[in-house]
Amino acid sequence: MMDVAKLAQVSPSTVSLYLRKPAAVSPAAGQEIARAIAALGYVPNLVAGGLAAASSKVVSVIVPSIRNAFFAETVSSLQSALVAEGFQVLLGHSEYGEEQEEALVRTALSWAPAAVVLTGLSHSAGTRKLLQASGVPVVEMWELGADPIDMAVGFSHPQVGATAARHLLSKGRRTLAFLGARMQEDHRAAKRASGFVEEARQGEPRTCEIINHPGAATVEAGSLLLNRALQQIPDLDGIACSNDLIALGALFECQRRGIAVPESIAILGFGDLDFSASCIPSLTTIRPSGDLIGREAARLILSSIHGEPPDGSARIVDTGHVLVERRST
């Protein structure tokens, strides 16, 4: 650091500030420090800094799957906000397994993270015990409900399911199904399914079924699920899907079978992924504001790290959801 300061012609404390919080240094000084770092090949020793401060500049973020596009937007916005304050994200994925999540949490805590971010509210007893004893700020994201470990940012998944059911009922659909995948592990998708059925039954449908595929939520799974749904419910006229990939697979299968969408079957997804607006027909879906979840999680983390943790209801942030109506319904 002394070598960088000498080459950049600034004080060592300015270099230290730049490494911790680049925006706090003037643009001119920041450019000179960046040039010096590049010229010298300097890499800060974050472990040594963590030992000195009793916590590192790393925030551990654990998601169910790095293959799931839903979490990419959230992690990206979370990282952008944290990097601006001198923090880095350490990303892990649990593959929807509570034991794997607990192992990731145990490893993360061994590195004295500045904060831990988990996905959802369903964790093993061991994970909850580890985090409650750690004293580290914890944010659970993508779900709201009772008894968060520390802080929570997200939305109600049963309410998302209810929104989907109300929309299909409003279109005159009465023979309904919820198509989902891996719901034995994906508790949030299962909650959307239960919210869908509970709300649909208020409209006295002729039929309302939940159909689950045991594997991953993919386009292929959507095709398989629609086939199963039509075998069980030949007069099916409305489906909600646990995500847009499954909805796209169902849409493709309808096209292969010559089933008109939405005339014969209305299809509704979840996630508002990039293809949803441009597929044919365009896909009605529910948007969960993944970028806002990331920004709000970062805000809660930084407030806690800076000694201003939110109190009471301010520890829970409801980011809501939005129905995006398109041609498929």
UniProtKB/TrEMBL annotation:
Keywords: DNA-binding, Transcription, Transcription regulation. Gene3D superfamilies: 3.40.50.2300, lambda repressor-like DNA-binding domains (1.10.260.40). It comes from the Bacteria. The keyword Glycoprotein does not apply. Residues 1-53 form the HTH lacI-type domain. This is Substrate-binding domain-containing protein. The keyword Oxidoreductase does not apply.
